[in-house]
Amino acid sequence: MSFAPYQVEIDMTQQPYSDAGKAVAEKGQVLLDGPDGIAIALTPDAAEITARELLRAAMEARSQVE
């Protein structure tokens, strides 16, 4: 499974969330509950890809400020 990268416009004047989200598995779906009421349901495949993308992006972001 693959996906095409896309551009996301974000208001960079707001501070990023420092609270981590929580993920649980329920009825064959992965539910992600994030800060400020952010919530999504993902298939297991989509959750796995999202996890990898989050880790990749976190490592890249960390290298930008070190």
* Strand order across the largest sheet: 1-2-3
- Could you give a short account of the major beta sheet? 3 strands, antiparallel
- General form: globular
**SS elements, strand count:** 3
Distinct helical segment count: 1
Overview of the molecule:
The protein is α+β, with helices and mostly antiparallel strands. The chain has a domain of 44 residues. The chain contains one helix and three strands. A three-stranded antiparallel β-sheet has the order 1-2-3. Strand 2 and strand 3 form a beta hairpin. It starts with 21 loop residues before the first strand and ends with a helix. The model has no long low-confidence stretch (mean pLDDT 90).
List the helices and strands and how they pair.
Layout: E1 22-26, E2 29-33, E3 39-42, H1 44-65
Antiparallel strand pairs: 1-2, 2-3
Which features characterize this protein?
66 residues; alpha+beta; three-stranded antiparallel β-sheet; 1 helix; globular
TL;DR of this structure?
This protein has one helix at residues 44-65, and strands spanning 22-26, 29-33, 39-42. With 66 residues, the chain is of the alpha+beta class.
